[in-house]
Amino acid sequence: MTSTIQLTKSASWIKLPLPLLGLAIASLIWWLWTTPLWHSDPTLADFSPERTFAALVLLFSKGTIIPHILTSLRRVFVGLTVAIAIGVPLGILVGVSRPLEETTSALFQFIRMISPLSWMPVAVMVLGIGDLPVYFLLSIAAVWPLVLNASAGVLAVNQRWLLLSQSLCATRWETLTQIIIPAIIPHLLTGVRLAIGIIWLVLVPAEMLGVSAGLGYYILDTRDRLSYSELVAVILIIGLIGYALDSVLRFAYQQWTHRN
């Protein structure tokens, strides 16, 4: 028994640095690709880890990137809020109403398969240039995971619970608020996590619609200034923030499922 516990502990210690090992290997490949030891192109040196991390420190020390990060996070929050306000109620309605599900299934699947970026010209023509078309693109990208996960959660509710609510003469509102919504929260958290991932992918090209701030705008700005080390630094920032957002939602999902 003691040897089994020791083997388990040793295995956990072996697994612990594996993510760091993956990052180290990726960094080594990155350095080998950009080091002057293997090529004579001076442009590739601007993409090197040394210059990238120097630019990263400079961006935060001067505070240059902070307003753009806050602007992008605000757009993500607004887009996600609009998507939740539309997608969750719509998904619940589709889940509880079989005729509505059959009526909207083909339509929703058709619209869902259209790339959100395909709506960019329409969004600019209808809503103009600024934050509104960005909000529209983020919302339409995020709404479908929420609709599908909410409806799937309703369909997965234990039928015994619904029969119990009927036997207790519960109203539809009581059944919805006391049984259905608490039961589908894991599905909703999964939908929000998927929605955040899609929003974060769509955000950068959406912020190239003539706005004057945001991470997507700043990438264009660094490209125009030929500041390639800053460009790669901003790409790293986008990846880190996206990873952090996904980690928070993954943690919330684990906490909810373990509590229940």
Quick tags:
260 residues; MetI-like fold; mainly alpha; disordered N terminus; elongated; ABC transporter permease; cell membrane
Elements, N to C (H/E): HHHHHHHHHHHH
The radius of gyration computed from the alpha-carbon positions, rounded to a whole number of angstroms, is: 24 Å
Give the total of domains.
1
What value does the average pLDDT take? 82
Q: Can you tell me the CATH architecture?
A: Orthogonal Bundle
What's a concise summary of this model?
With 260 residues, the protein is an all-alpha fold. It has helices at 2-15, 18-34, 42-45, 49-61, 66-96, 98-112, 120-127, 131-155, 159-167, 172-206, 215-224, 228-259.
Compile the SSE list and pairings:
Blueprint: H1 2-15, H2 18-34, H3 42-45, H4 49-61, H5 66-96, H6 98-112, H7 120-127, H8 131-155, H9 159-167, H10 172-206, H11 215-224, H12 228-259
Helix pairs in contact: 4-12, 5-6, 5-8, 5-10, 5-11, 7-8, 8-10, 9-10, 10-11, 10-12, 11-12
Keywords: Cell membrane, Membrane, Transmembrane, Transmembrane helix, Transport
Pfam families: BPD_transp_1
Protein name: ABC transporter permease
Structural features, described:
With 260 residues, the chain is mainly α. The chain has one domain: MetI-like (MetI-like fold), CATH 1.10.3720. It is built from 12 helices and no strands. The chain has helices at 2-15, 18-34, 42-45, 49-61, 66-96, 98-112, 120-127, 131-155, 159-167, 172-206, 215-224, 228-259. Helix 5 packs antiparallel against helix 10. It is elongated. The model is unreliable at 1-5 (pLDDT under 50).
